[in-house]
Specification:
Elements lengths: L1 H18 L10 H6 L14 H23 L6 H15 L4 E10 L5 E10 L7 E2 L2 E3 L5 H17 L5 E7 L8
Parallel strand pairs: 3-5, 4-5
Antiparallel strand pairs: 1-2, 2-5
C-alpha cells in the first residue's frame, strides 16, 4: 500500500509540475476543500505547527488518491467495502507508531550536572527497519520529530526504499559541550 501510495503521489506531483500549475492537477471537491485546514494558519500571527502541516498534506494526498486506490483494489468486496478498507488503511498509516521521550543527566566539564531531553519517533513499522537520523538543536520538539519521521516514511515510499520512517532529536547545542 505504501509503495502504491508513493507511486501515485509522485505521478500526480510530476504531472502537476509538468503542467506548470500545481493546483490544476488537483480535483476540486468539497472533501478536498475541507481537508485544507493547514492554509488557515496563514491568518494567524504565529507560525503554523509543522506537524499539523504534514498531517494536512497527508490528508490532502489521501483524498487525491483514494478513488484510484479503491479502483485498483483487487478483492471481491463491494465498492463501498473497498472504500471502507482503503480509508481504514489510510487511517492506520497516518499516526506515528511509537514516540519515546527521554531525559538524561550529563556532567559538564566544570562539574555541574545538566538534564538533557531527547525524543525518538518511529512513524511506521510496516516496512522495517526504520530509517532516520538524529537532530541536535535547542528547538527540537516532539511534534517536529513526529513530522520528520512521517516525512521519511513518505519519502521512502515514493522511491520504493523498503524502510519505515523514524527520527530522533536531542535538545542540545553540541557546540556548547566538549
Amino acid at each position: 500500500m505504501y509503495r502504491y501510495f508513493g507511486e501515485l503521489l509522485s505521478r500526480s506531483a510530476g504531472s502537476a509540475l509538468a503542467s506548470g500549475c500545481v493546483d490544476s492537477a488537483l480535483p476540486v471537491s468539497s472533501s478536498l476543500m475541507r481537508v485544507r485546514r493547514y492554509t488557515d494558519a496563514a491568518d494567524k500571527p504565529d507560525d503554523p505547527n509543522f506537524f499539523k502541516m504534514v498531517e494536512g498534506f497527508y490528508d490532502r494526498g489521501a483524498a487525491i488518491v483514494e478513488d484510484k486506490l479503491v479502483e485498483d483494489l483487487r478483492t471481491r468486496e463491494s465498492s463501498e467495502q473497498k472504500r471502507q478498507r482503503v480509508r481504514g488503511i489510510l487511517r492506520i498509516i497516518k499516526p506515528c507508531n511509537h514516540v519515546l521521550s527521554v531525559s538524561f543527566p550529563i556532567k559538564r566539564d566544570n562539574g555541574e550536572w545538566e538534564v538533557v531531553e531527547g525524543y525518538r519517533a518511529q512513524h511506521s513499522q510496516h516496512r522495517t527497519p526504520c530509517k532516520g537520523g538524529i537532530r541536535y538543536s535547542t528547538d527540537v520538539s516532539v511534534d517536529e520529530v513526529k513530522a520528520l519521521a512521517s516525512l521519511m516514511t513518505y519519502k521512502c515510499a515514493v522511491v520504493n526504499v523498503p524502510f519505515g520512517g523514524a527520527k530522533a532529536g536531542v535538545k542540545i547545542n553540541p557546540r556548547n559541550y566538549s
